[in-house]
Specification:
The structure holds 3 protein chains of 3 kinds. By secondary structure, chain A is an alpha+beta fold. Helix content of chain A is 36%, strand content 29%. Chain A has one domain: Heat Shock Protein 90 (2-Layer Sandwich), CATH 3.30.565.10. Chain B is rod-shaped, with a radius of gyration of 32 Å. The N and C termini of chain B lie far apart (88 Å). Classes of the chains: A alpha+beta, B alpha/beta, C alpha/beta. Chain A: InterPro entries: HATPase_C_sf (IPR036890), HATPase_dom (IPR003594).
């Protein structure tokens, strides 16, 4: 969070404990993306990434929260979203970011796909330490 | 920087002989205009800057990047931006500021403490001159990037070739920014014109490497998921050779040597659908 | 307690028009409902209209592919219609291409495609 300046209002936190919360989180991301003036394609990419990451938080992290905000950096504005959980964590980050690799029942496109859909992507995780994924999509 | 006696004298001088200095400044700048700006415009511009400069010097300090000089800097930003748009070179723009030194030089060197004041002022003006050059460059960069964007829009037309068939003649290099624009325009075009076929003609694309092929592939797959078929045409012999040599996989994507051949294929498919419709089979 | 997506029957075709932002459970329910309805009605085909969907993520994408495969096993064809350009571009970037799924631009064309497939079962996708 230290790299970006939070613009307009403070960070919004959405708890993720049910699949309905995942829908709420991605709708909140869409509202911010529209307000920030992201193009329709970029809105769609960001909301889809949020959906993938929110589902990961719920399914693999056993629930957690999404934190979203409008951020600025060097004159550009974007939407920042962070998905946090206190779940089992990911032992091998490189492997987790490989297309087609999955620990569960998914297609294995969640993390690697989400990374391709956003501009900035940061994954922090260790076994037993939970998982945090932060993403930013910048308005052009 | 502390305000020495030299500065006080400089201030008096600049205040009392304001009109004379501004006139001299305008005269020396006007010589470089070559008709791009009127003398009256320059007089107004420089008059404002002179006043702001005087105001900043009164408040103390000779630090051109400091808070006192914010008004001076905003006026200089405006000047640099205008100059950059009107096609002035960075040197010409910076000379606008530097020429004030020459005007003040004669008046200052004549007085006993003048040399010191002059050097202080020269340092300040040098700094402000550099500032205009930076702003000039910044504006030029903005102009270049907005032109690049316009070019991107201009260079990717989507045309209707036939009822139900769109054509996208690609000219120039395909990078990911360009692919994004092409894809967006093509997919929206399919929807708007209710077209089931699109022909992407790459006759004007100088080279096809793995990355370009990847971009084309993405476009074709996206169109297919919307329910439209894409044909890639205009594959020149040397491009076909590169494609094979690089081992690029186009998968099940239809490719044709010429736009005519692609159009022929697309028409045949559309014909088949419409004849089925006529026979009442659909 | 979650809503279910309605499955409509028009002649020999089952029509699913998804109008709301889908929760994962609704996606799973729909998959189950459709399989059951295909068997019950002996439908020729299934048309899934996603015109109103603002996003399709990997979960929904997988559901579309699974329904297409299930319906094929049950002797009917599935056509997905109305995918938005932004959704298509996002799916490609995500890495999904829905290779086994038939698609059409509009609902009308989707219904035509199913009729055509039943006239000529060997027609290419």
């Amino acid at each position: 969070m230290k790299e970006y300046d939070v613009a307009a209002d403070a960070v919004e936190t959405i708890p993720i404990t049910t699949s309905g919360d995942v829908v709420k989180a991605r709708q909140a991301v869409r509202t911010l993306a529209q307000r920030t003036g992201l193009s329709l394609v970029n809105q769609t990419k960001l909301v889809t990434a949020a959906s993938e990451l929110g589902r990961n938080t719920l399914m693999y992290g056993g629930g957690g929260r999404a934190r979203i905000a409008v951020v600025t950096q060097g004159g550009r504005t974007g939407v920042w979203a962070r998905f946090e959980d206190e779940g089992p964590g990911i032992p091998d980050l490189d492997l987790a970011l490989t297309d087609g690799w999955t620990s569960g029942s998914g297609m294995g496109l969640g993390l690697s796909g989400a990374r391709r859909l956003v501009d900035d992507f940061e994954l922090e995780s260790a076994p037993g330490k939970g998982t945090t994924v932060s993403v930013v999509k910048w308005a052009r | 920087m502390t305000q020495g006696e030299g500065s006080a004298e400089l201030l008096d001088l600049m205040e009392s002989r304001r009109d004379e200095f501004v006139q001299g400044w305008v005269r020396s700048v006007s010589g470089t205009l070559r008709g791009r700006l009127s003398a009256a415009e320059v007089a107004q511009e420089l008059g404002e800057i002179y006043n702001a400069l005087l105001g900043a010097l009164k408040q103390g300090g000779l630090a051109g990047r400091g808070d006192h000089f914010s008004e001076v800097r905003s006026l200089l930003i405006e000047l640099s931006r205008n100059r950059a748009r009107q096609g002035f070179t960075p040197t010409e723009t910076a000379l606008c500021v530097f020429s004030l030194k020459q005007v003040l030089e004669e008046a200052l060197v004549a007085s006993p403490d003048g040399a010191r004041s002059y050097l202080q002022l020269a340092r300040l003006l040098d700094d402000l001159g550099l500032f205009t050059v930076e702003e000039h460059a910044k504006t030029r960069e903005e102009i270049i990037s907005s032109q690049a964007e316009q070019l991107l829009e201009l260079s990717t037309p989507v045309v209707k070739l036939w009822d139900g068939i769109l054509g996208v003649p690609l000219v120039g290099t395909l990078d990911s920014a360009r692919t994004q624009v092409v894809m967006e325009k093509l997919l929206q075009g399919l929807l708007d014109s209710n077209s089931t076929h699109a022909i992407i003609d790459i006759t004007g694309v100088p080279a096809v490497d793995t990355q370009v092929a990847q971009h084309l592939l993405k476009t074709v797959v996206a169109a297919r998921m919307m329910g439209a078929q894409c044909i890639i045409s205009g594959i020149r012999p040397q491009i076909a050779q590169t494609i094979v040599a690089l081992g690029i996989e186009f998968g099940d994507i239809a490719t044709k040597a010429t736009l005519a051949a692609a159009l022929h294929d697309a028409l045949a498919e559309i014909d088949e659908a419409s004849s089925l419709r006529k026979e009442g089979l659909l | 307690m979650t809503d279910r997506v309605p499955v409509l029957k028009i002649g020999q075709i089952l029509l699913v028009s998804i109008q709301t932002d889908l929760e994962d459970q609704m996606v799973l329910d729909l998959q189950e409902d459709l399989s059951q309805r295909i068997v019950d009605t002996n439908a020729q085909g299934v048309v899934i209209d996603i015109t109103a969907l603002e996003i399709v993520d990997s979960f929904v994408g997988r559901m579309l592919a699974t329904i297409a495969s299930i319906s094929r096993v049950l002797g009917s064809e599935t056509v997905v219609v109305g995918m938005r350009p932004a959704v298509a571009m996002t799916l490609v970037e995500l890495g999904l291409s829905l290779p086994g799924v038939r698609t059409a631009l509009t609902l009308e064309r989707g219904m035509e495609q199913i009729k055509r497939l039943n006239q000529n079962p060997s027609a290419p996708r």
